[in-house]
Amino acid sequence: MSNTISPAAHQDPHRVEPDSGRETSTYLNNGYGWKSWLFTIDHKRIAILYLVSISFFFAIGGVFATLMRLELATPKGDMLQSDTYNKLFTMHGLVMIFFFLVPSIPAVLGNFLMPIMIGAKDLAFPKINLLSWYIYVVGGAATLYVALTGGVDTGWTFYTPYSSTYANTHVVPMAIGVFITGFSSILTGLNFIVTVHKMRAPGLTWFKLPLFVWAQYATSLIMVLGTPVLATTILLVGLERLFHIGIFDPTLGGDPVLFQHLFWFYSHPAVYIMILPGMGVISEIISCFSKKRVFGYSFIAFSTLAIAVLGFLVWGHHLFVSSQSAYAGIVFSVISMLVAVPSAVKVFNWTATFYKGTIELTTPMMYAVGFIGLFTIGGLTGVFLAIMSVDVHLTDTYFVVAHFHYVMVGGMLMAYMGGLHFWWPKMFGRMYPEFIAKFAAVTIFIGFNLTFFPQFLLGYMGMPRRYHVYPPEFQLLNILSSAGASVLAVGYMLPVFYLLWSLKWGKKASANPWGAKGLEWTIPSPPITHNFESIPVVTEEAYAYGSEPTITVGPGHQNPNPHYKDDPIV
Amino acid sequence: MWNDFPLLPDNASKMGFQIDLVWWFLVALTVVMTVLIFAAVVTFVVWFRKKNDGRVATQIEGSTQLELLWSGIPLVILMGLFGWGTAVYVQLMRPPADVMDFYVVGKQWMWKVQHPTGQREINTLHIPVNKAIRLTQTSEDVIHSFFIPAFRTKKDVVPGRYTQQWFEATKLGTYHIFCAEYCGTKHSQMVGTVTVMTQDDYQNWLAGVVAGESPEETGKKLFEGMRCVSCHPVSDKTTTIDGAPARGPLLAGIYGKEVALKDGGKVTVDDSYIRESIMRPLAKVVAGFEPVMPTYEGQLSEEQIIQLASYIKSLKGSEENSGAADGGAKK
Asked: Are residues B203 and B180 part of one domain?
């Protein structure tokens, strides 16, 4: 990729370190012992710390979900008590949103890749980056404390006055956990914004940035602007609960609906915190495995910013039946419809990127195809909920549950899995086993649809969300959903095994196993501690797949792509 | 399980059909778009899959025309849907003039309902068919939401304020009432049934239930018992029933009117304003009066406040009195 890196760069992009047999210096073998990890300021190692922590919380959130789906297999509350069930859906939401989805792509993939993609040695503030992780861990510890000492039952939405006055569970410790974790987001966002502004390699102008970086940037803006509002709101709930200061509870002179406005002012943009980074990953994967530049680069970049901005103006669509003024509702409804346009533009552009590419259906690409289908459904069902008259029937039913799982799990989690597989060789220098990975991807896709599609029907039938017991006519669809959840659980467990297996036994990865464009593929896998031996000079646009020669193929590695017949793994 | 499984949910209200029409259009749009996009992606993946024929990808930068097309067309469709959906919503906001007023009070974890004629029910609601019904709702504790899926209607039941929804049942039968806003331990058991009856059956049902008093009658007793009458005139605009000079505004004929406030603002007298004036009398004092009314917060239940408001509503002012209400306000 000599036209990306200046001739002044001393490193030879064609060498493949792991195959040479000698121990070369990488960020992974640069120090062993626990201190070298817990006191690291290397963005790549911090990304691995996040990877381990969010996987841990994902497993916990998954256990909560499994218990819920088991209970819901029958209409009666025969396995769990109501209070236990209520705690399970609350903790499932809190853990999955604040400790998995929000940090997933930004803190793992973003942390690892964003500095490399812009040709920097690290983030702008490496120590603050480590601090973000420690803050996350403290917030996570508070959450674990709550989970182990009896839980919290307010729903992840903490609606007042239930949370501030009536609930008898650990609301305050949980609020502290969420409050603390918020600062982790804020600091990560701040770090990313400064890094993108100040650390780009020479020649790397804004419109040469990979779309993944655009997505991280837009996400960071939302984190920095939105999270303080959540922190304030949570603080107010705590103050009302502890000191009976009347803010939300009407018996103290407060306004319960005010809480919903403040909460959704953060939490709707937070939906975009959770989905925008996924969209960035999808752009990278589709471009690479089509060997084609992304169709309408600037439209995707600007639609990302449009979503980030408009996302702040739609919170009221969560309040159509809350007693919010009908006129306010109409305004929120029309802006919510508008935000669907940039999302649609992205989907069309991705689809067009496939056209006349040379497409390889690798595991990441399968996740990307799954993402497009499921995000389309998730997005369009959002339109149902943005239309007031239809929302009156559907809001607070399983339709909403299905909708946001299509966006969060069908969208974000698919993108995260795709991205993890795509960059796994770069992160650990090992290939994952392709066949079983494809099998897992298909299992997840089938399990996901079986779990959540019936919930759309349940919602239209009128089954409210957060119901521990339900009328018998809803049982059939609930059984389908629970059955799907078991398939989904298997699908998520497979990668744990084969990815860990690959760390030791996986085939060694070359610097650029996919033949991809992008600065991260010009450095060895795994990278050295400072990423680049000398700062690259970028002259080429992102996704310049037309330019030859395509990429670094090392000696003895004529066809680095695992799909070729000479690869023993396939 | 199989016998109970419905293919489609009941649709038993006048507005339900219009809402379902929007719903089915959206379903069709979602199916068409998802199938088109997924088919395009799968077709491209198969068609343009990498073969060993040396073909290289055709690099395409993009197309402004296409971008405008595929942002413009969705925009037009979405705005059309917004207009349609909002038009239906406006009808959901506006009950017909001859609506029957029912009152709903939610508390953890039951629904208390009172009929216009005074009958009370818990977790059941009996209503006549083809008659517009308006629910005025409030909560004694946390936020609930009164949801009747078969009528395609729901509205949160919020402590400290009144919310309203209306519907007109079109099919006889018994349907679910659900609490749709999470409200604590027995949220999923805060359920009930609404029974839609013919007019005759409804009259018979009413006759078979000990009616007690209508909300207005109870309200009148409360109004006297709580000594509201010692400050508020009910017929004479300047003196109370005891002959003392009025310290509070005349209440007859005041409902639905706009009154001027001491601080220069204006407010329309509705259920929420009456409730606020009882609970927090100093919040919006009518012009011409001193802020002397004590709060009744904690002394009246939500149902009693509804009954007081019903009584105040029932006090029809004569033309002179209605004028007097405004005149008094200007004083």
From this structure: yes
**Contact (CB<8Å) A86/B159:** no
Assigned domain for A287 exists:
yes
**In this structure, what token pair is assigned to residue B242?**
């005891």
- Identify the three-state secondary structure at position B115: coil
Are B267 and B310 in a shared domain? yes
Hey, which residues 353-392 in chain A have their CB within 8 Å of chain B?
354-361, 365, 369, 372-373, 376-377, 380-381, 383-384, 386-390, 392
**Interface with chain A: mutation pick from B143, B146, B175, B189, highest number of A CBs within 10 Å:** B143
Q: What whole-number distance in Å separates Cα of residue B120 and Cα of residue B116? A: 10
Whether chain B has a CB inside 8 Å of the CB on A453: the answer is no
User: Helix, strand, or coil here: B258?
Assistant: strand
Q: Show the domain range for A108.
A: 37-522
Q: Are residues B249 and B152 in the same domain?
A: no
Same domain? For B196 and B224 the reply is no
What is the domain range of residue B102? 1-38+68-212
Q: Domain check: are B273 and B166 in the same one?
A: no
- The number of folded domains in chain A is 1
Which secondary structure element, helix H or strand E, spans residue B322, and what is its range?
helix B319-330
Contact A358 B48 (CB under 8 A): yes
User: Cα separations (Å) of A251 from B157, B292, B298?
Assistant: 15, 21, 9
Query: Does residue A213 contact residue A280 with C-beta atoms inside 8 Å?
Result: yes
pTM of this prediction?
A: 0.87
**Per-residue model confidence (pLDDT) at position B7:** 65
Cβ distance A388 to B61 less than 8 Å, yes or no, reads: no
Q: Report chain A's terminal Cα–Cα distance, integer Å.
A: 27
Torsion angle in degrees (nearest 10) through CA of A71, A374, B42, A211: -140
In a domain, A558, yes or no: no
Q: What ipTM was estimated for this complex?
A: 0.88
- A499 vs B134: CA distance, rounded Å: 59
Report pLDDT digits (tens) over A245-277: 989 998 888 999 999 999 999 999 999 999 999
8 Å CB contact between A518 and A284: yes
In tens digits, chain B (331 residues) has pLDDT values of: 454 556 678 889 999 999 999 999 999 999 999 999 999 999 999 999 998 888 888 888 888 899 999 999 999 999 999 999 999 999 988 999 999 999 999 999 999 999 988 888 999 999 999 999 999 999 999 999 999 999 999 999 999 899 999 999 999 999 999 999 999 999 999 999 999 999 999 998 888 776 667 888 888 888 888 888 878 887 777 777 777 777 888 888 888 888 888 888 888 888 888 888 888 888 888 888 888 888 887 788 888 888 888 888 888 765 444 443 443 333 3
CATH of the domain at A406: 1.20.210.10
How many CB atoms are located within 10 Å of the residue A138 CB?
Answer: 16
User: Does A52 contact B at CB distance below 8 Å?
Assistant: no
Minimal C-alpha gap between A354 and chain B (Å): 6
Task: Identify whether A561 is part of a domain.
Answer: no
Q: Do B184 and A167 touch (CB under 8 A)?
A: yes
Selection from A323, A317, A171, A147 nearest residue A237 by Cα: A171
My answer on whether B193 and B228 are in the same domain is no
Q: Which residues contact A250 (CB under 8 A, 6 or more apart)?
A: A161, A256, B159, B160, B161
Question: For residue B127, is it within any domain?
Answer: yes
Residue in A343, A330, A351 with CA at minimum distance from that of residue A377: A343
Contact B143 A161 (CB under 8 A): yes
